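Customer escalation, tier 2.

The customer says the design service returned an amino acid string that "doesn't look like it belongs to this structure." They asked us to rerun it and document both sides in this ticket. The original structure tokens are below, unchanged.
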């Protein structure tokens, strides 16, 4: 350790003259003292110091902990993080200072928080650029906002509101919209400790020959739905099959999956308005088939007018392994049956009939060394559709994630 270096021995946070015990605040500090065994001795630092000088690959260095040397730059950054945390929670007048005390090459640092009074929301308003359908939808969502007059200001609440508004707008068809287009402009009154919030919604910005062009948000309408099935085979022959208005594009003469079964899981249809919930539900339903290691959705404009974009919805499905197995062994003891051993082995096929069916065979066996044995076989067949004697499947398979399981 250098002459002007100090080992960081203790970090503390004080608020209103008392030490703070809130663990969340301590996670904001950019430097923390070496860990102490039972809160007394820096055991891991001691192990680290057992390493020979210059021994970079020393075992003691790997399991020990290097000394934490006081860094004033990181101390200032820690104070800034604490100040930001309190301001995000409505204490806009917060100031954080830190005091360092040193003794015998050891340093203690105390962060002192002067938070002031928490600010209250006085007014929430939205001044749209126009009165078109998009801004009317934003206005209706803001009318029902939980951010109201009389509530304490809180940054997390504002972030949650940005997400809520963005998802609601996406479900109305505005496929390019996200929370980054929304921000809150805060105007504080230090005398009354109140804050006015102006909700700003930005337009889409596009760069054209060095000039930034503002474009309005438009709805997306599904013009075509394409599902790309990658079978890892050479693309010598590509075929397209249309099922329920969905184009399935695959390699080879025979599709690798039951296309009707896949179509049941995809809610997106030609002519429908873009809806984020439909995309999320389709993704979840395809994921539950356990046939694909990667699923991605892409939406590309293929035609546009002043009010909407016609979209090509492309779904890319990359198959995973069809067959998997697991083996488990367990040793047990029982006062009556004495010691024993049990085990199981499972074999799974995730596309047994090319309809994303999941067949699982499990063998279980046990022996408690007291001439008592148990053996059994379990077979489960999960079909990702509703198998019903009445025609409920036409309704349920298209609008919900249905499954039928046969077990013996």
């Amino acid at each position: 350790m250098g002459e002007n270096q100090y080992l960081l021995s203790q970090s503390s946070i004080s608020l209103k003259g008392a030490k703070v015990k809130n663990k969340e605040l301590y996670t904001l500090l950019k430097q923390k003292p070496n860990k102490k065994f039972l809160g007394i001795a820096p055991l891991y630092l001691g192990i680290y110091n057992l390493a020979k000088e210059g021994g970079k690959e020393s075992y003691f260095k790997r399991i020990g902990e290097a000394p934490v040397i006081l860094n004033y730059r990181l101390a200032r950054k820690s104070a800034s993080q604490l100040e930001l945390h309190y301001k995000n929670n409505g204490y806009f007048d917060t100031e954080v200072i830190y005091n360092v005390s040193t003794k015998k090459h050891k340093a203690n640092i105390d962060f002192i928080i002067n938070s002031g009074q928490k600010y209250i929301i006085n007014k929430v308003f939205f001044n749209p650029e126009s009165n078109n359908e998009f801004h009317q939808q934003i206005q209706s969502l803001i009318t029902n906002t939980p951010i109201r007059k009389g509530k304490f200001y809180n940054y997390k609440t504002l972030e949650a509101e940005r997400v809520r508004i963005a998802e609601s707008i996406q479900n109305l068809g505005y496929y390019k919209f996200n929370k980054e287009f929304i921000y809150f402009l805060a105007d504080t009154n230090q005398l009354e400790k109140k804050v006015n919030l102006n909700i700003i919604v930005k337009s889409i910005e596009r760069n054209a020959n060095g000039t930034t062009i503002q474009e309005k948000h438009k709805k997306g309408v599904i013009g075509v739905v394409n599902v790309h099935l990658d079978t890892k085979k050479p693309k010598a022959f590509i075929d397209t099959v249309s099922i329920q208005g969905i184009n399935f594009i695959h390699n080879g003469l025979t599709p690798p999956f039951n296309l009707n079964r896949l179509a049941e899981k995809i809610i997106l249809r030609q002519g429908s308005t873009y809806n984020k919930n439909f995309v999320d539900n389709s993704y979840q339903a395809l994921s539950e088939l356990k046939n694909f290691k990667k699923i991605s959705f892409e939406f590309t404009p293929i035609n546009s007018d002043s009010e909407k974009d016609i979209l090509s919805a492309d779904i890319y499905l990359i198959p995973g392994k069809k067959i998997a197995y697991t083996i488990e062994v367990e040793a047990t003891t029982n006062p009556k049956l004495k010691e024993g051993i049990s085990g199981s082995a499972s074999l799974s096929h995730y596309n047994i009939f090319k309809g994303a069916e999941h067949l699982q065979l499990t063998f279980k066996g046990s022996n408690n060394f007291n001439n008592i044995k148990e053996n059994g076989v379990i077979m489960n067949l999960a079909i990702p559709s509703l198998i019903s004697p009445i025609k409920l499947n036409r309704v349920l398979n298209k609008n919900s994630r249905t499954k039928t399981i046969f077990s013996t």
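Tier 2 assessment: The sequence is consistent with the input. The mean pLDDT is 83. The first strand starts at residue 7 and ends at 15. Sent an explanation to the customer and offered a walkthrough call.
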